[in-house]
Amino acid sequence: xHPQLEARRFNSCYELIQALDKCHQQxxxxxxxxxxxxxxxxxxxxxxxxxxxxxxxxxxxRRQERKTMEEKWKKIDEEEYGEDAILKKIIERYQAKxxxxxxxE
Length: 105
Hints:
The structure is a single chain. The chain is mostly helical. It has one domain (11-104). The chain contains four helices and no strands. The protein has helices at residues 14-26, 28-32, 37-81, 86-104. The longest helix is centred in the middle third of the chain and has 45 residues, at 37-81.
């Protein structure tokens, strides 16, 4: 069984979908004896390739969104702590010294 075949999602497989539907509707015995298996196998392969292509596209989009988000985070950090986060490093050193002196008392 194949998933719901949406036209916009599997438009590259439209001809194969039509061929399999036509084969199934022509004569019942063809479907029973497996005479539509070639069309079904071709459709399965096409749907698999379409799914993989969709996944690759989604991965590219998520990577781009992640890159954009990291750039925004970096910009926020630079606005808050200065370029190269100098202020943040100074605060961390101060905290480390403060925590180090408290532990030795």
